[in-house]
UniProtKB/TrEMBL annotation:
Top-rank lineage group of the source organism: Bacteria
Species: Microbispora bryophytorum
Protein name: DUF899 domain-containing protein
Pfam families registered for this protein in UniProt: DUF899
Amino acid sequence: MTATPASSAAAPPVVDRETWLRERDELLVREKAHTREGDAIAAARRQLPMTLMPTVTVRGPGGDTPLVEVFEGRRMLIAYFHMWHDGKPYEHQCEGCTFSTCHMRMLDYLHARDVTYAVFCEGPYDESAPFAEFMGYRFPWYSAKDSDPALADGRDFGFIACYLRDGDKVYETYWTTGRGVEALMTTYHALDLTVYGRQENWENSPEGWPRVTGHPWRLNGRPTAQWSRPGVAPR
């Protein structure tokens, strides 16, 4: 992944501050409408019906673990279903799942709202758990490779599922995939505030704006987040 150097990239027109403030205020109207619509969608999401999960297990450091125990005593669970390529080295593992999960460092605020965050990996535990350690992940990591198919329910890995616990019963309340997974990607939310945005080819940006060449989530052959890991040679 490379991007056009900032010094050679195009830039917005320069205007006086009064004009800039007026156009900023016009955009703010649209932003506020977007926020209110997002709030309305979130309210509808909270009021969705839920469905009872069968008794399923995942494999963790203590062996087979019932789904209800993944909650760690909390009421809610967010699980990310992580893709895995069996037998492949770390640099060949899913760059999109790496991008999603590497952001989930600070769990205190989730825990304060009675929510546990965990990853259910598509690959075997003995093979994938060292990868989680290599990446420095602090959240619980489990393998769903040999779990009852009802856990994924026919969905391809690379999705988020949300659950509610009522005693020993577990209900699935919501799931999302594709761009819905961007809920975890705080880097994208921050880049969307900048003049050049995500710098990806699909974006509606003016001619001359910098664009990423190559895979947007890889840098010099590795998922971008791996370059800061101990033991990885400097790029």
